[in-house]
Amino acid sequence: MKQPELHTFKPENTLSLRQALGQFATGVAIITARNDDGQAVGLTINSFASVSLDPPLVLWSLGLDSPLLKTFEHCSHYAINILAVNQMELSQRFAQSQTDKFSGLECQLGAGDVALLSGCCAWFECRNEIRHIGGDHLILIGHVERFSRAENEPLIFHSGRYRALK
What domains appear along the chain, each with residue ranges and CATH number? Predict the structure, then answer.
């Protein structure tokens, strides 16, 4: 097997770095919260990870240029909705910047009145506990207060495309 070409990071290599990072398959999630006006907000992410079981901590990250940055810096709670394989359209809806992403969706309310989306694989209701700047992103660590799971196949993202396990 031929050894891959090695790159030293330079600003002109950003696309190559992004493509290499895309080789790590991830799940897809929608983070939901309430803004200062009480309006439900949400966005699609694939930066979710478990941090600790005791205490129960999870993390995700948000670009510093996101219009939702202030909301997620200051909200008391947010929910992490892990998407199922049949929720690609929902992922795309929350990845776009439209005003009412929740129109017509069936949701339950979780801790802090945040939206829990129907049909997901898992749900984590988190207290917004720790925030750190990491380069061009804000890293958010949430304390899991409640969680649930369903027997649904997850939606996967790899190499710039949605995938399924099968």
Answer: 29-152 (2.30.110.10)
